[in-house]
Write a structure and sequence with these properties.
single chain; 318 residues; two-stranded antiparallel ribbon; 6% strand; binds zinc ion
């Protein structure tokens, strides 16, 4: 299967300028996350119980790991491993339950940002260059509207998949059956913590990881000639399911493994390894079997990991 990198779905023409745009309020996104966050803050403390807290932790972990990190990001967006279609559908459905976007919307968001960051210059919005509060407002409540945006074209396999089309159309409603189930089983505390608190924490957490992982943190690699570098945010390695090893992700976007150095915990990778062990994942891409990204340069001495080149491969220049 052909490995897609983000920018292969984005088509710019001569008029497209990644800097020429305005950040505009996006009502649907803003009202969705605004309402979830308001309900989480006002009702969360009132309805806190041990079982509700446990439900929040388990449902967050499952939707972020199986869903967002492995299903949406590593499989759907980057094709970093192959798996049966039913497993891909299942994981992507769980990713939709994170409450950020549907499958098509998630790919579009990721690939547009990826494309913008690969240019020689990048709008502050696309590179998370604004301060914390402004970036929070921009990323959680607004969108960047370019004067001449590039075209976005999904590959036919995903565009014509009826399951993804259905989930895309109904992604906000996908919370409803779970909301009803949680309410019936555990009452208000399960509804509040299993839906409102979970969605607002996971979506806000996703933005926070994106914010810091483009600003500061560990760096083992530099990509020459692009507007944005990624950084490893060690503090979030566990709870981001490995997604916060973002310097590694910029270096090897097609890799199923994001925590590539010892000590970089990566639960998403462990899950893919488990799939592989039981015969559900094949053709798993890692820095060992991927061609180096153009412009990739190894930082010697960074993070004291210079002696710990992943898998002993020696393609990266230093
Ligand atoms: Zn990035
Ligand atoms: Zn990515």
């Amino acid at each position: 299967m052909k490995l897609m990198s983000g920018s292969e779905r984005i088509f710019a023409n001569d008029e497209t300028d990644p800097l020429d745009g305005k950040v505009r309020w996006c009502p649907s996104k803003s009202l969705w996350i605004g309402t979830m966050t308001f309900l989480a803050i006002t009702l969360g403390p009132v309805f806190l119980t041990w079982s509700a807290l446990l439900l929040f932790i388990v449902t967050s972990g499952v939707t972020l790991c199986f869903g967002h990190s492995v299903g949406m990001h590593r499989r759907l967006i980057h094709s970093s491993f192959d798996c049966p279609l039913w497993l891909e559908h299942f994981c992507v459905y769980l990713g939709t339950l994170v409450g950020m976007a549907g499958p098509h919307g998630m790919i579009r968001l990721h690939d547009f940002r990826d494309w913008a960051q690969r240019q020689s210059q990048c709008h502050d919005y696309s590179c998370h260059r604004s301060g914390l509060w402004r970036d929070a407002w921009w990323q959680l409540h607004c969108r960047l509207v370019l004067k001449h945006p590039p075209a976005f074209r999904l590959e036919p396999r995903l565009a014509n998949d009826r399951f993804y089309t259905f989930v895309e159309r109904t992604w906000m409603w996908q919370q409803l059956p779970w909301a009803i189930l949680f309410f019936v089983v555990g009452g208000w505390s399960w509804l509040v913590w299993g839906i409102f608190v979970r969605v607002s924490v996971c979506v806000t957490g996703h933005w926070l990881v994106g914010h810091f992982s483009h600003r500061r943190g560990g760096q083992s690699w530099i990509i020459d000639g692009v507007a944005a570098q990624g950084y490893n945010v060690r503090l979030a390695g566990l709870i981001s399911m490995g997604e916060s090893w973002h310097n590694n992700h910029h270096a090897f976007p097609g890799s199923a493994k994001m925590g590539i150095f010892p000590g970089q915990i990566d639960l998403g990778w462990w899950l893919i390894r488990t799939f592989e062990t039981i015969g559900l994942a094949t053709n798993v891409k890692t820095p060992d079997n991927l061609p180096p990204r153009p412009g990739l340069r190894r930082l010697v001495g960074a993070n004291n990991t210079e002696a710990l080149v992943p898998g002993g491969h020696s393609r990266a220049r230093s």
